[in-house]
Amino acid sequence: MKLSKVLYRQHIGFMFKKHWLIQGKRVPIDTGLEESLKAKGIPVEDALEFVKEKQEPRERFEIIGPHEHIKPLDENHPDYKQRPCLTLKHTSVLLEGISQAQVLTKTIIAEDKLPHRIEELAEVSAPKAIHEGVKKAILSANVFDCEQKKLPKIKESERPAFNFPRILGISDRRRNEILTNKLLQLVEKSNDVEVTQNKYVVNEVECHSVFDKEGDLIQFQDVSGILVTSNKPLKHELSESDIPFIEIPDLYPVKHTVTLPPEHFYDENSKYPLRPSVSKKHPHTTWLHFNRTEVGNLYETPVTPTQILGRSLTHAFTVASAYAKQLHGEDVKDLPEPIHINCIQTDGQRFHFGVFELNTLNVDGTDGTKNVWYCKNDVKLYDSSRYLSGMPVLENYNPNVYGYINAFYNC
C-alpha cells in the first residue's frame, strides 16, 4: 500500500514508528563552532570524557594497628624451625585410633568404667521439667533451627557416579553448638548458685601441647567446643586395684607417628587458654565436638569408631598437659600430684564420657609411671529427631545421658 498522508492520519502508531526511525538516523550538523573556538585558543573537550571521575595516584602508607603483613613461609619466618614437629590437629584423627593414642600418651585404659562418685551422681533422678528441657534442646538443634546450608553430597556405593539433589539443612557444627550449650545451660539452672559461681564457661578455645617422645618432637593442637574451669583443681578418688586395665599395645609394624605430618613452622611452647592470674583457671570439663564434615583422615577415608575414641583421649591429654606445663614449666616430666580432667565428646547423638588422670609427661616407652583413662563410650541420647508427617518427632530419648553430664559438672 502506498504510504500517503491519509494512511499516516489513519495509523498514528505506524506513523510514530516511522518518524522515530527517521529521527534516529539524523546526523549532527557541523556548525563550525569547534574550529572557531580552537582558532581563538579556547580548548574543546568531549562531554563524556569531562564527566568521568579522574583517579589520582594514591600514595602507599603503613597502617598502624591490627593489620599485619602476611610473611612468606620460608626460612626467614620467625616461627621457622629446622627440626620438624609432627603435628596432630583438631581436624585430623590417628590412623590406629585409640591404640595409637595410648602409645603416644603412654596411657592405660579402664574401659566402661568411671569413678565411683560420678556413677553415684549419675543415678540421681532429675525433675521431669529438666528432661522436657533436654527434649526441647534436641529438637531445637535438629529440627527448629532456621539455618539452611548445603549439606554434604549424598553418595551411594551401588551408583557412585549418580548425582543426587543437594539438600539444604542444619550443619553438624551448628547442631553440636546448640545442643551442648543448651544442655550445659540446663545443668547450671538445676544447680545451686554456690556451684555455678565457682566455675567459668568458655567457648571455642585452643590448647597446644608440645612434647618429646623417643626422639620425635610432637605437637597436639586441639579446640574445646566448651571448656568449664573451676576455682580449684578437680580431684577424683580412684581405686585401681580391682579394675582390669587395657595395657599399652604394640603397634608393630606401624610406627606411632604414622599420619602425623611434619611441620617446620610452629611454637615450641605449649599453650593453655587461661592466664595464670585468673582465679578460676583450673580445667574441670572439656567438651569436644565431632563434626563429621570437618574431621577426617589424612587419606580421605571415613572416620572409624576407634578413631573417634582415640580423639577423646588425645584431646584430654592436650588440655591436661598444657595446664601442667603452665603450672610446672615446659620441662616437667613426672608430676608431683596427678591432674584430673573430665572429657565429653559428642556428634549430637552419641556421647563418649571420659576421665583422664595425667601422672607423667615422660611418654617414652611403656615402663614406669603411666597415665590413666577411664571411659564410658557410645551412649546414645536419642534414636531419631526429625519431621514425620509434618510434625517434629523425637524417638527413644535416653535420660541417662543427662545424668552423666550433670554428674560431671557436680563432681
Can you describe this structure?
By secondary structure, this protein is an alpha+beta fold. Helix content is 29%, strand content 25%. It has helices at 5-10, 12-24, 33-39, 47-51, 98-105, 116-122, 128-144, 172-189, 193-196, 305-328, 400-410, and strands spanning 80-88, 107-111, 149-150, 168-169, 199-213, 216-230, 262-265, 282-289, 334-346, 350-360, 371-380, 384-388, 391-395. The strands form three sheets. Strands 1, 2, 5, 6, 7, 8, 9, 10 and 11 form a nine-stranded mixed β-sheet that branches. A two-stranded antiparallel ribbon has the order 3-4. The mean pLDDT is 90.
Question: Can you give me a brief rundown of this structure?
Answer:
With 411 residues, the protein is an alpha+beta fold. It is 29% helix and 25% strand.
**How would you describe the shape?**
elongated
Proportion of residues in helical segments = 25-40%
Helix-and-strand structural type: alpha+beta
H-E string:
HHHHEHEHHEEHHEEEEHEEEEEH
Q: How would a textbook summarize the main sheet?
A: 9 strands, mixed
Write down how many β-strands occur, each being a DSSP E stretch of 2 or more residues. 13
**Uncertain regions: pLDDT < 50 for 5+ in a row?**
none
Strand content: 25-35%
User: What is the number of helical segments per DSSP (H or I, 4+ residues)?
Assistant: 11
Rg over C-alpha atoms, rounded to the nearest angstrom: 34 Å
Separation, N- and C-terminal Cα atoms: 102 Å
Mean pLDDT: 90
Write the layout of secondary structure elements.
Layout: H1 5-10, H2 12-24, H3 33-39, H4 47-51, E1 80-88, H5 98-105, E2 107-111, H6 116-122, H7 128-144, E3 149-150, E4 168-169, H8 172-189, H9 193-196, E5 199-213, E6 216-230, E7 262-265, E8 282-289, H10 305-328, E9 334-346, E10 350-360, E11 371-380, E12 384-388, E13 391-395, H11 400-410
Parallel strand pairs: 1-6, 2-11, 8-9
Antiparallel strand pairs: 1-7, 3-4, 5-6, 6-8, 9-10, 10-11, 12-13
Helix pairs in contact: 5-10, 6-11, 7-8
